[in-house]
Predict the structure.
Amino acid sequence: MSRINLQDVYVGRLVRPGAAEFLYELMKERDPEINISHRELPTFEQHMDFIDRRVFRLWYLIDVTEFLDPTPGPMVGPRTRLGWAGYVSATQRNEIGIVLKRSHRGMGYGPEALRLFMGQNKPLPSDPGERNARWLANIAPTNPHSRHVFEKLGFLKIQETFALGG
């Protein structure tokens, strides 16, 4: 049995210790063919610039603790912190993103983290021309698992996005 906690990437005006390095390692795992934001891995300095610009209005690391006692009931007793499994984020346009380490995919951490995230945070109010007052998720067509997760959480497919060339 596991418990998911969300830890803010930012601690006041600072970045949580170790977060930038973790996020960079996570970015290295991403497939450049399906990555919307970049085809080539940014340098660590470019990555830090992105973090410093605070592009995401909400950005949480998904922290996983495993409880060693499998008996039902309150989660107490022996446990081990597995560490960060990925992140969940949201933009000013209410777009949710989630990325998990390959080694943590398929274990239920993604849906659990998204439920927790949406339970703790609400979409920003509608602003015509900027955003609707609902959560959105942009999912690569080559990622059916992610699409299935969001559909199970109640998201509906509303469009497809196309890009020209490389």
